[in-house]
Design brief:
About 35% of the residues lie in helices and about 15% in strands. The protein is an alpha/beta fold and about 375 residues long. The structure holds pyridoxal-5'-phosphate.
Length: about 375
């Protein structure tokens, strides 16, 4: 086989043409307004509100702080039900708010929180549910909302993976009380680092916008115990440029995704996520589960790594198996999440991944 020369990583950041970014940041040398809700920030906030069809939207310096400060804005107490099959951020945001996470197991096919296991975990202490649209798969939003309404619970989605995802024309930003998006460099759409929260109740603007700026309301009034979650102008400039190209980037990802599906679906012992009906996908990740395949997940990982191809064991371990939570939780409480985390591999997936490389990856997995 011909030598590639370059390693193939699990993801590769999209970049706008250099001249486009340079033109976008040029005015900053005159205005000298580099952060604190400048012109570019405002224009990106408006652009994303429209693109994501959000009722209300606030930008943040990253997705994690958007989630952490949104949870704070809702003034939650006690326990929050969430999933262990996610990135560290989701649970850490709950714990860093002084709340207790309660882990609900996931569904077999799309790895999102299983609403059938949800109600049994609700106690007097429960104040909210934080589900994750993992890999861009939408949660069972109707079932979750129905349970939340019956028990008077807030629903705050970790929608970090669902930029641009819609179901029957309805945006992923429209579910629950609020949804956090991440615009980290590794995501489908990025602002280098960055994030946002879309939320339903306009009255929350006061809290959410206040918390990200130290709780400062005006020059002489500090009304909330906030922090610093502001997105700067260079981030916003990258976001404005990338927003122009994101539909094209998603279309390029679709071709990569379809090629993987062509090669890997129907193979004994290899399981792909089913396409969700009515869903406009964003092809954020390419998760593959090795379940009774002649190679284990770790063997496939080793074979690809040998050839300088670097998939991720994403999400392994489950959050409830983390060292920092070792004495508080156990992965045995969520057996499906624990098993999937041992069997899953996310394969390289990005807009510019050549189809020949997808074939090379599939050949190694199938050989
Ligand atoms: C990326 C990610 C986050 C955190 O977003 P940052 O912008 O990196 O802070 C949170 N949750 C999930 C599921 C993610 O993938």
């Amino acid at each position: 086989m011909e030598k590639r020369g370059e390693p193939i990583r699990v993801t590769r950041s999209s970049m706008p043409p250099f001249e486009e970014y340079a033109a976008m940041i040029r005015p900053l040398w005159d205005s000298r307004w580099l952060t604190n809700m400048g012109d570019l920030h405002q224009s990106l906030e408006a652009g994303l509100k429209e693109f994501l069809k959000a009722e209300n939207l606030s930008l943040f310096t990253n997705g994690h702080l958007a989630l952490e400060m949104t949870l704070q804005a809702f003034q939650l107490k006690g326990q929050v039900i969430t999933t262990p099959f996610t990135f560290a951020s989701t649970t850490h945001a709950i714990v860093r708010n002084g709340l207790t996470p309660v882990f609900c197991d996931i569904r077999e096919d799309d790895y999102t929180l299983d609403p059938e296991k949800l109600e049994a975990l609700i106690t007097e202490e429960t104040s909210a549910i934080v589900p994750v649209h993992v890999y861009g798969n939408l949660c069972q939003t109707d079932a979750i909302q129905e349970i939340a309404d019956r028990h008077g619970l807030k629903v705050i989605y970790d929608a970090a993976h669902t930029f641009g995802v819609e179901v029957n024309g309805r945006s992923a930003a429209s579910f629950g009380d609020a949804s956090m998006f991440s615009f980290h460099a590794t995501k489908v759409y990025h602002t280098i680092e960055g994030g946002a929260v879309a939320y339903r109740d306009p009255a929350l603007a006061h809290e959410i916008n206040g918390l990200k700026n130290f709780g400062i309301l005006d020059e002489e009034t500090v009304a909330l115990v906030g922090g610093n979650g502001k997105m700067n102008e260079f981030q916003a400039a990258m976001g404005l440029c990338n927003l122009r190209h994101v539909e094209q980037e998603i279309e390029k990802r679709r071709r990569v995704y379809e090629r993987y599906r062509e090669r890997l679906s129907g193979v004994d012992g290899i399981r792909l996520c089913p396409k969700q009906p009515g869903v406009k996908m964003n092809y954020a990740y390419m998760p593959v589960v090795f379940e009774g395949y002649r190679l284990s997940r770790d063997e496939v990982f080793a074979r690809l790594t040998e050839r300088d191809i670097h998939p991720r064991k994403y999400f392994y371990p489950c959050v409830n198996a983390y060292q920092c939570y070792k004495d508080r939780f156990s992965p045995e409480d969520t057996p499906i999440a624990a098993r999937i985390s041992r069997e899953i591999l996310t394969l390289p997936m990005y807009a510019d991944l050549p189809v020949e490389t997808v074939d090379e990856i599939c050949d190694i997995i199938l050989e």
